[in-house]
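Posting for a labmate who doesn't have an account.
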Amino acid sequence: MPEYLAPGVYVEETSFRSKSLEGVSTSTAGFVGPTRYGPVSGDPELITSFLDFQRIYGGLDDLRFGTSPAQTNYLAHAVRAFFEEGGRRLYVSRVFRFADDFAVDVNGVPNRHYGQANTATVAPPAPQITLRARFPGRAGNIRVTFTARLGANALNAANGERTLTRVQDHDLVFVHDGAAVVGADGLHLLRWNATQRQWELRADGTTRLLGPLTSSTRVRPVTVTVDVEFPDDNTPSGFGSAQSLGEFGFDPRVPRGLTNTFTRSPATRFLFLTVPFALEVPTELIDPAQDPESADADNWALALARELLGPAIIGTFTNDRTPIEDRRAVFTLTGGDDGLQPDEEAYAGREDLHDYIHDPLLESKNGLLAFEGVEDISIVAAPGYSFGYVDDPDRVLAIQNEVINHCERMRYRIAVLDTPPNFLPTEALNFRNLRSSKYAAMYYPWVTVADPLGDGRLNLPPSGFMAGIYARNDIEHAVFKAPANEVVRSAIDFELRLSKAQQELLNPQGVNCLRYFPGRGFRVWGARTISDDPEWKYVNLRRYFAYLEHSIDRGTQWVVFENNGPQLWDNVRRTVEDFLFNEWKMGGLVGDKPEKAYFVRCDRSVMTQNDLDNGRLVCLIGVAPVRPAEFVIFRIGQWTADATR
């Protein structure tokens, strides 16, 4: 109650309406599986287009696990199919099975790995600087080009005075007088002496002032541009087109310091996902961030520039006509691979995973574990997990069980499963019978598409297509409408064209078939779960209840810790009834009256005194959902003209 301590007029706001309850999204999907590149731990990134996926996780090129032959990049193709079929929002969790565990140094930092050895070491003189790919994978064997750039002369020698313009404290500059360099190689770190209020040029323990410099001396800022080329087997050079990452300074105390951006753990998520490598600087150099005023800290930028560019490039700075190609230092990272074939442990997620980033808060979020913190996901798939079933059935079934178990544990999700490739109908039926769950649906056969990397055809698992069709169905119709009799837009054929008799074998057991119909195209012709419980036979029924439960769960969080009495009960009942009335009006519930479509009870009839004493509020809700017209029957008979109907 508000306090009224002095006479006066008090205006208070109050609400006479019940709390509103908003339906949750059901069209967001989550894919888990191996990719060419990208983070293997941490919160999964939201993908809204295939271009987003390519930028973070690589393209469609094949994967190579260990010594095995190249394998189709099924997850990348599934992402492409998801968006082509109408999907809008997708989270991706990359799995990677390291060939060996990281060796950890005395500081607890991983320092080597077979599966993440994409490195290039700058040549002596020491100390050596190492370029290392941020994420594992063959796609991390990139080519990095550092191009030195010289700015205009910043020294102003008018009227016998020496001043600098267009520079800032900690800039690296090159000082020369004609062909003669000032100092060992002309490189100096620019420092502002606040006490004497003048600029200083520091290099190799020597400090120079501007005064002694002649009017013909040039003081030119030195920066570097960084370009990256990713591997591309389809080009003669083996690399794709260069991508510019920007222009940088050498000292970390400037706004765009090289080692601020190219570090193991950048300051922003954007840099983490878009900067593909890190510069590992030896501990012999004093980090200016740790001791900014140390004299040794000023050597950081000098050592970094000399190591990356080398004396041959620095020696060209006195000649402005030097071709730009002669001012480039090129490094190719080598040793990266795609690891081993991911197993069920990699898909499920490891609590003890260690990667190059080595962030304890992120490393535990890998595989399906990474999806547990994302509430928006309602569709889960592991495209390509069923490939290789003939050679290793235990691995395939274990991965499938992990995906189903994840959805059962999270309650508001459904798993979209694939049958293995090249299966006959009886084999597909036997594969389905190995597991029953009301939180999963299985599709057969695989979908044939035009190979985007060649001129031929490619068979892909149907889960990526179906996840997109689920999303499209929810957006264009509603979640309570069965995601069936929908066109598979990107299909040019199916791995096997099923007949009606073959589907009659599969459909009753919960194997959803993809069929071709002349004149109607390639369509989804099934909407069942793999549950043996007839109450949860249909996919749309399971997903609709997940939608209702999740919406009520999220929309009634305000109830917690309110006074548990009749006023609260009435408020909860009205809130849920208003939500269900709207669902009935949209056609999600059957019944010609609301009373026949749903009921909500929240009173002493559903709560005992023991419930109240233990702080429990019980609300009993019943709904009559619509079911799909799976079998449309028209009964036709003869009748005479004088017969009554």
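Reply:
Got it, the structure tokens are right above this. The chain has three domains: 1-21+556-645, 28-100+342-541, 116-152+185-336.
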